[in-house]
Amino acid sequence: MIQVKSFVFNEFQENTYVIWDQSLACAIIDPGCSNLDERNQLRDFISVNQLKPSLLLNTHCHIDHILGNEFVYNTYQLPLHLHEGELFTYKDTDRWAAMFGLPKFTVPEKLVFLQAGNVIGFGSSQLEILSTPGHSIASLSFYHAASHQLFAGDVLFKDSIGRTDLPGGNFDVLAKSIREQIYTLPNQTIVYSGHGPATSVGYEKVNNSFVKI
Q1: What is the CATH number of domain 3-207?
Q2: Which strands, in side-by-side order, build the sheet including 52-57?
Q3: DSSP 8-state assignment for residue 116
Q4: 138 confidence band (pLDDT: 50, 70, 90)
């Protein structure tokens, strides 16, 4: 069983997740902390709960999901795990940063490229890596099968889906990802999205008007 702590960070109201198991090893997913207060929130939670950061994961590399990558990378000496296809998105963030008055971004030096269909572990837990493009070029979702929990980035939201009008977005590709990778998971699977509240596969299959089964 894994435990989940979510933080709502930055002006985009992005969900950052810290997940851990009984070993206290933890994974940090899409750190969006963008200022000193938010960075302290993340660091203090990890310290107070005596967690041991073991993985830094990006579902995708839109600007709101990578604002804290450098902080986590430097603080815990964790290489960044992502899909190689998202490097294009990452390197495009300087253009978006300029639009929002944010500093330029540096891609962390140590990278580990993830492949869909593989698993990645932390502590005694394993996450299955699912390919879920459509919102971005090569977005990944991370599924903990033992507890039926999915970390889906901006692919699927409660009653909604990720936008497809950004570079690399494609509605047909996104809908295919949702139908074939997410709607095929058990109905009780909790979906932790990149924005907004958690939902479930069963709920979305019945109620999501954007992508129907």
Answers
A1: 3.60.15.10
A2: 3-9, 14-20, 25-29, 52-57, 80-82, 111-113
A3: T
A4: very high
